Amino acid sequence: MAAKELKQFTLEEVAEHNKPDDLWVVIDAKVYNLSRFKDLHPGGISVLTDGEIAGQDATEAFYGLHRHEVLERPQYQRLQIGTIQGEQPVIYSRIIGEISDVPYAEPTWLSQGYHSPYYTENHRKFQQSMRRFADDFIYEDAQAREEDGKRPSQSVIDKMAAVNLHAMRMGPGKHLQGLSLMDGLVKPEEFNYFHELIITQEIARCGARGYGDGLMGGKVIGLPPVLNFGSEALKARVVPEVFAGKKFICLAISEAQAGSDSEDGKEWIVNGTKKWITNATFTVGCKTEDGLTVILVERGPGVETRQIKTSYSTTAGTAYITFDNVRVPVENTLGEEGKGIFVILSNFNHERWVMCCSSARGQRSIVEECLKWATQRMAFGKPLTSQAVIRSKLAAMIARTESVQSWLENITYQMCHMTYKQQSQKLAGQIAFLKSYSTRCAQETAKDAVQIFGGRGITRTGMGRFIEHVIPLFMDIFICLCSAAEDVLADLGVRQAMRAMPKNARL
């Protein structure tokens, strides 16, 4: 179909079309004919026939009520009939792969004119590639799935597998050997935690936290026990299928009971339940005669899952699991029998660090939304930013976001230069503190964002839809409870510090 030819008009010509049956408006130098649309306008006819709208430049009024993406919908694009002579549109939507030029919308290392000691040229190229990938393949699916509550599309999971993103989300390690990472952009031996940080934050930038977890996020905590404690035969069978996006895996701890009850002693018999499990297909911590034992339980007879609807997001695949006399080969035991606590704790640092990466980027996205809104929203003839109370809230939001990112990057640098044992000794407390601090910051930032957006901040559609989406996540307790509650994490950090206190320290 040939593109519609757009004519050029003067503002004076547009002004003549100001009647209900002949109604034109100008939005960002584009002329729209709303004569047939007026009866369909969600806000009613009177809004469009107002003397300051009909036949006028309605740019300011439009952006005070609508997101720019509205104009990009096909049904509204068809309403454009021309442009204003001598003028060019200045407002545009997201550009695939581009860095935002809104202040503090990007971490400092990506901002024009700033420098960082942490990121190499390869990190920058990797970020550019990951940004384009997320914009091209993840963003639209994330918005659609958060809306309908379904799991992420398999096509997206397959595209991630094609460039080995599932493997890279596990962090650096031997599991990357022999793989082509992001079409060869980074060598397996050069991949480090800053590359992983970039992956996590680019996915989080889509503004769909539940979707990010549904995008096989469960493997980030469910697969490490297999990688680190499973037999070579078990790893050879399980890991490739997970990295290829063909099988999901998650971690389910406590509540299930297990005993080696088969006649030949070659099977575990697993019974019990587990609740609030992301992705729900399973590495399970079970109570056995000798204590806690971690077992890989594959979906099969006796295993049932039911979706749990939370205030968080159904697209994450959160589920309630029941095990009814499930037979599991003893070869699926991960680590030593009765030593499961060490298997589980071995991944907590990385798990909490990943959550901090996501939280930092999520808070930054809220800052960007609030800066845009406070600049374009007019109240009593002035933008919201003219109000000192609004500027104060923005200042606090920015300070919190920058402090979380800075602390996160410092810890990430330490991770890149420490062995696993050193990380456990030196960073468990710091990561716990950061997790506790970042969730408290997220709660405050979410609260301030709702104050800035008002009622729009609790409305699922429209100007504040991204703010509304994070309210259950940040303001409720969900993210605070993931990987231990705030108070537990803070106490862990202090207890680790106490163990390192020198015996001769005195005032």
Show the helix and strand layout.
Elements: E1 7-9, H1 11-15, E2 18-19, E3 22-27, E4 30-33, H2 45-49, H3 59-63, H4 74-77, E5 80-84, H5 121-148, H6 154-162, H7 165-168, H8 193-204, H9 209-214, H10 219-222, H11 224-229, H12 232-243, E6 250-259, E7 267-277, E8 282-288, E9 291-297, E10 303-307, E11 319-329, E12 333-334, H13 340-345, H14 348-376, E13 378-379, E14 382-383, H15 388-416, H16 420-426, H17 428-453, H18 465-475, H19 478-481, H20 486-499
Parallel strand pairs: 1-5, 6-8
Antiparallel strand pairs: 2-3, 3-4, 4-5, 6-7, 7-11, 8-9, 9-12, 10-11, 13-14
Helix pairs in contact: 5-8, 8-14, 14-15, 14-17, 15-17, 17-18, 17-20
Explain this structure to me?
The protein is α+β, with helices and mostly antiparallel strands. Helices cover 45% and strands 15% of the residues. It is built from 20 helices and 14 strands. The strands form three sheets. Strands 10-11-7-6-8-9-12 form a seven-stranded mixed sheet. A five-stranded mixed sheet has the order 1-5-4-3-2. Strands 13-14 form a two-stranded antiparallel ribbon. Strand 2 and strand 3 (22-27) form a beta hairpin. The chain is elongated, with a radius of gyration of 26 Å. The N and C termini lie far apart (81 Å). The mean pLDDT is 88.
